[in-house]
Amino acid sequence: MATHSDPRLLDTAQLEAVLAEFARVRDWDRHHTPRNLLLALTGEVGELVEIFQWKPDAQAEGIMNTDEAEHVRQEVADVFLYLMRLVMVLGIDLDDAVRKKIALNAIKYPPKTEC
Amino acid sequence: MATHSDPRLLDTAQLEAVLAEFARVRDWDRHHTPRNLLLALTGEVGELVEIFQWKPDAQAEGIMNTDEAEHVRQEVADVFLYLMRLVMVLGIDLDDAVRKKIALNAIKYPPKTEC
Amino acid sequence: MATHSDPRLLDTAQLEAVLAEFARVRDWDRHHTPRNLLLALTGEVGELVEIFQWKPDAQAEGIMNTDEAEHVRQEVADVFLYLMRLVMVLGIDLDDAVRKKIALNAIKYPPKTEC
Amino acid sequence: MATHSDPRLLDTAQLEAVLAEFARVRDWDRHHTPRNLLLALTGEVGELVEIFQWKPDAQAEGIMNTDEAEHVRQEVADVFLYLMRLVMVLGIDLDDAVRKKIALNAIKYPPKTEC
After folding, report:
1. Which pLDDT value is given to residue D112?
2. pLDDT lower than 70: segments of chain A
């Protein structure tokens, strides 16, 4: 079980530096308010979901072996990038938040006992 | 500008190992199909968005200084954790996907020229 | 095929009158901005989706025969009510919008020819 | 206050008949499972939200006076049409669900007393 005192699970420092500079040179910081980013995140989740909306489970599971793989990768990246920008503008330590949440989940959902 | 040959921006290896084990000991892998995870991701985005739905921008920007900060951190973590599980079951290299998408965005949205 | 000159498909006049009064006596109009309502809509879609996230298709199809039926009805109503409030604050004629969209869809997706 | 014994607030009978026939002649019923429709609904909400994601509140409020009005109307219609298809495949009486939910909301959120 992961606990808060465990070593870091996630390192996003380089990404955050790149995204901060990316926004700065485009004068995007004033657009990247929490509510704008939440709407943008919702929009990107919508685009990702649309790829899968009519696909049976077996087809969805095999999608990375098709010519839609690159599209999926791009939409997953878009969702993640807007989430990271939200994390950044809110000043959240994502690694810390993730470790605490995993620790809470571990209590809420104990592992199945194996007999 | 970030390009595909740049060094990694993101390291999720430890997190992926922890999440894989977390799911394994709970027998969750059979539930973590791409479409189930997309619905779960949508649900968590909904929970995150609800925190902000009636808040004016100034209040949204200051939310991490209020007693709702922990709630925000938990919902951000939930969104990210389901996105990571989707990344894992689809076999996506998130760092690679992110670097390629940033490179595409850099072409699509050139920086403002500074005179 | 439905066209713009067809009779109305949808009558929401009574509902709109009730919702307008409901908001008025609660002083909610100032909160019901388009962006607030879009975030609220996203939140309610999240709540609706969560009911179905871990259910196989057969279980999802039979959900109205279970004790989750009332929950589904309430979340569907919540999604619809926020969409109606958005329609109202934007001054959209939903029946007109729906008929035009059906006409566009009919052109975009011609019926399968039956031999 | 609306109660369950009140007259109908909403009439969708004609729309449901048109949508049923629209799906039938395109052989779409087998694709319109609850989970597919929920993913499609999420996708359309994403498309609607994207129109508003970078707009300040004042601009969002005036959008129907711009050349984006028709786009908004189409996306609102798309969200509503997938919600109606979900209502249809689940066999929900939307008017009944809406009246019950409004009655619940009236109890949960009593009107402000006016002095």
Report:
1. 79
2. 1-6, 114-115
The answer to whether residue D2 scores a pLDDT higher than 50 is no
In a domain, A34, yes or no: yes
The pair of three-digit structure tokens given for residue C62, joined into one six-digit string: 């039979």
* Chain A residue closest in CA terms to C56: A57
* CATH code for the domain of A47: 1.10.287.1080
CA distances from A90 to A29, D26, D91 (A): 12, 47, 43
Assess if residue C36 is contained within a domain.
yes
Tokens 């104990």 belong to residue: A110
Residue C114 is assigned to a structural domain of this protein: no
Q: pLDDT per residue over D41-89, tens digit each?
A: 999 999 999 999 999 999 999 999 999 999 999 999 999 999 999 999 9
ipTM of the complex: 0.93
Q: How many domains does chain C have?
A: 1
Cα–Cα distance list, B77 to A37, B70, C87, D92, D107 (Å): 16, 11, 33, 34, 34
Q: Tell which of D39, D63, D72 to mutate to test the A interface (max A CBs under 10 Å).
A: D39
Q: Contact C100/D35, CB-based, under 8 Å?
A: no
Find the chain B residues whose C-beta atoms sit closer than 8 A to any C-beta of D: 35, 38-39, 42, 57
Range of the domain at C91: 13-99
Kindly state whether residue D30 falls inside one of the protein's structural domains: yes
For residues C58, C70, A49, D78, the Cα torsion angle rounded to the nearest 10 degrees is: 110
